[in-house]
Amino acid sequence: TVVDPLRISVIGTGYLGATHAVCMAELGFEVIGVDVDPGKIKRLTAGEVPFFEPGLEELLRKNLESGRLSFTTSLADAASAADVHFVCVGTPQHPESNSADMRYVDAAVSGLIAGGLRPGSLVVGKSTVPAGTAARLAAWLSEQAPGVELAWNPEFLREGFAVDDTLRPDRLVFGVAPGGNAEATLHRVYASVIAAGTPVVTVDYPTAELVKVAANAFLATKISFINAMAEVCEVTGADVTHLSKAISYDTRIGGRFLHAGLGFGGGCLPKDIRAFQARATELGAGQAVAFLAEVDAINLRRRTRTVTLATEALGGDVTGKKVAVLGAAFKPNSDDIRDSPALAVADTLRKAGATVAVYDPAAIPNAQRAYPEIIYADNAVDAATGAHIVLHLTEWTEFRELAPNALTAVVAARTIIDGRNTLNPAQWRAAGWTYHALGRP
Ligand code: UGA
């Protein structure tokens, strides 16, 4: 295969950037990944992925060995070494305003400018940003680095499927300014992905920025819709899992992201819907997305409902009771605990006076750093030993396959709350357990 001589830099090596850097090398490019955290760069250089992502480490090692992939803490090296620079840094929620904190994006661009971007090179934003960011950065570049173009190419990968989503995305979105070479350059970068049949939507900057937040807002709304139906199921005696299945046969509705339970968390959906509201309000369109406040509220009420269910099952007072929590990551196949519904519930019960023991197949080290007061167990049986209630809060396959009898002998009381609706109620009840769930009798 002929390797395209384009050289690529990827700024930020978190869940998004590390995956993007590895996948760009896999496509045949010479890639340099940059991060301000020397610990991360050291581990990546040693062939170690600093987070849990199935399949990524093998691909990292393969591409380090090929010599196409390297990592550095020097943004200046990347600025001068590459033709295309992907900005993949975080845009976390601002603690006071709910809007996206742009300091890392701005630092990446100013570092690239200071490092001596070459005329003719392209800066490509991938981070999720408020509408108007690309235009602002393009103006900044044209002043400080004449001849350097900017494009916006939002990323839609899911944690846990990051490699596949990057190499075989549902679509590519290219946000570009009229004229210039950005669109042609992006077609070169993604040539093999496009050749495999991936649709490309080429748009202006604000549309590209909005596609990303609109997609996440829609997904969050779908989850909160079914969780709102779960609330109504709870007061009518209906079963939301059957309701969801029945409406999903209508192909206009579909069944994906219609799984009722403890709701969404993670580093994206919650903060993105809040930042979207903040930005739309600034621009005078707050009313158009006011429903997202309700989406957020429905989502957070599921956490409260789970705490209430547990408290009631424990006789109205959790003080001195032992609670076993299965799951800490915000979703299975991830070690990410950002805005994890499972840990939010665990910590609320701990603060109310319960002794809480958590087990998760991958997220314990991260959970331990963020919630040091919680007790952590090495497996589900250890977590459940002596427990007055078991809460299933992240739906790892390991928990679905757990036989109730594995826990029966060690618990103090056979009560389980299935916060994700993936356990088999009949199986747990047959084993003598009191089984509660969200949105089902
Ligand atoms: C999400 C989007 O799915 C990606 O397309 C997007 O690129 C990414 O955010 C981002 O903006 O970077 P991710 O945060 O990895 O990806 O997680 P999802 O798989 O979307 O799950 C989000 C949350 O929704 C999880 O807590 C999950 O447990 C919950 N969920 C999902 C439900 O409660 N019910 C469902 O039916 C589906």
From TrEMBL:
Which InterPro entries does the annotation name?
Answer: 6-PGluconate_DH-like_C_sf (IPR008927), NAD(P)-bd_dom_sf (IPR036291), UDP-Glc/GDP-Man (IPR017476), UDP-Glc/GDP-Man_DH_C (IPR014027), UDP-Glc/GDP-Man_DH_C_sf (IPR036220), UDP-Glc/GDP-Man_DH_dimer (IPR014026), UDP-Glc/GDP-Man_DH_N (IPR001732), UDPglc_DH_bac (IPR028357)
Task: Mention any Pfam family matching this sequence.
Answer: UDPG_MGDP_dh_N
Per the record's keyword annotation, is Transmembrane helix included, yes or no? no
Q: What is this protein called?
A: UDP-glucose 6-dehydrogenase
Q: What class of enzyme is it?
A: oxidoreductase
Give the keywords, sorted: NAD, Oxidoreductase
Q: Which pathway or pathways does this protein act in?
A: Nucleotide-sugar biosynthesis; UDP-alpha-D-glucuronate biosynthesis; UDP-alpha-D-glucuronate from UDP-alpha-D-glucose: step 1/1
What family name appears in the similarity comment? Belongs to the UDP-glucose/GDP-mannose dehydrogenase family.
Q: Does the keyword Cytoplasm apply?
A: no
Q: Which PANTHER family match?
A: UDP-GLUCOSE 6-DEHYDROGENASE TUAD
Q: Which Gene3D superfamilies match?
A: Cytochrome c1, transmembrane anchor, C-terminal, NAD(P)-binding Rossmann-like Domain
SUPFAM superfamilies from the xrefs? Answer: 6-phosphogluconate dehydrogenase C-terminal domain-like, NAD(P)-binding Rossmann-fold domains, UDP-glucose/GDP-mannose dehydrogenase C-terminal domain
EC number annotated for this UniProt entry: 1.1.1.22
Q: Which residues form the UDP-glucose/GDP-mannose dehydrogenase C-terminal domain?
A: 324-425
Annotated catalysed reactions: UDP-alpha-D-glucose + 2 NAD(+) + H2O = UDP-alpha-D-glucuronate + 2 NADH + 3 H(+)
